[in-house]
Design brief:
The chain is mostly helical. It has one domain (11-281). It is built from 15 helices and no strands. It has helices at residues 5-8, 14-24, 28-50, 53-69, 80-93, 100-103, 108-116, 129-146, 150-161, 166-172, 177-198, 214-220, 242-251, 255-260, 269-281. α9 packs across α11. The two termini are 24 Å apart.
């Protein structure tokens, strides 16, 4: 589909063009630099779309291999990361459903009722209370996104969490800016209504409090006190950690701030090493 080309085209700089040219010519160091440049943003995209870190790791590996394998088709029509997002979004939109939220097609209304069930009368005071409260919040915002249809979810993530323009996001999703904005508007309305009705972070009058969900989340096995999936996740060197993300969220109460206040997660090194191993093995068809 066609988009507003002038609005989309924040093209690559000379360094990107030179780097990709070296990679396409078979320079393994350049290929590694491309992976390094893209790995964390692609992982964060995958994580927001598939919820669980293990699934996001697998998706990241597949997306990065597809990006590297098709570098020869990149013509500088957009920045390299924007182009990689387009490949990633296409993969993620067509990925077989894995999360329980998607499999059960849980609506935001049903999720809100679930959150209201089992709220403690007081804040959690057990061991690692602050850490587990953060884990509940991060897990909850991930689950919330899973209640959106995939096209709405990706629209919200690209625009309100990754702060891309509607024109850029429309190009990534192979849509028109007008159609994309309509999809984004639906997603923002649904998320906004849910937060206003349910979430105490967005509305002090709403019933749910992260610190009062800890006991129930532990009981149901939705969080692991020994291995927190999100609050204990590795972040990029010098990146925003859990405390900084929570502080940012505390000063803003709109949907983008609440759902976007995650740490700057880093792609797990073991998965990146696996990608490097595949590239170096000679068994992967590079740069077709």
């Amino acid at each position: 589909m066609e988009t507003d080309e002038s609005a989309v085209r924040q093209g690559p700089d000379a360094d990107e063009l030179a780097l990709v040219a070296r990679a396409v010519a078979g320079d393994r160091t350049a290929i590694g630099e491309v992976v390094l440049l893209l790995q964390d943003p692609i992982y964060r995209l995958a994580l927001r779309m598939v919820w669980r870190p293990a699934d996001a790791e697998d998706a990241t590996q597949e997306i990065l291999l597809r990006v590297v394998g098709h570098l020869g088709t990149w013509r500088g029509e957009a920045k390299l990361l924007t182009w990689a997002y387009r490949i990633g979004v296409n993969y993620l939109l067509n990925l077989k459903r894995k999360t329980s939220q998607e499999e059960r097609q849980v609506s935001l209304d049903a999720f809100g009722e679930d959150l209201r069930d089992g709220l403690a009368e007081a804040d959690y005071r057990g061991p690692e209370g602050e850490l587990l409260t953060h884990e509940v919040r991060l897990n909850c915002t991930q689950a919330m996104l899973q209640c959106l249809a995939r096209d709405e979810r990706v629209a919200f993530v690209l625009s309100d969490i990754f702060a891309l323009s509607s024109a850029e996001a429309a190009w990534i999703t192979d849509s028109t800016p007008a159609a994309y904005r309509k999809r984004l508007e639906r997603a923002k309305k649904r998320i906004g209504n849910f937060l206003t009705d349910t979430c105490g972070l967005a509305n002090p009058q709403a019933p749910c409090r992260c610190s009062r969900r800890v006991d129930k989340a532990l009981e149901l096995g939705r969080i692991d006190p020994h291995r927190p999936a999100f609050a204990g996740h590795q972040v990029t060197p010098g990146g925003r950690g859990v405390a900084a993300a929570a502080q940012q969220m505390s000063t803003l109460r709109d949907a983008a701030a609440i759902l976007g206040a995650h740490p700057d997660y880093a792609a797990p090194q073991a998965k990146i090493d696996a990608i490097a191993g595949l590239i170096d093995s000679g068994r992967f068809p590079l740069l077709n």
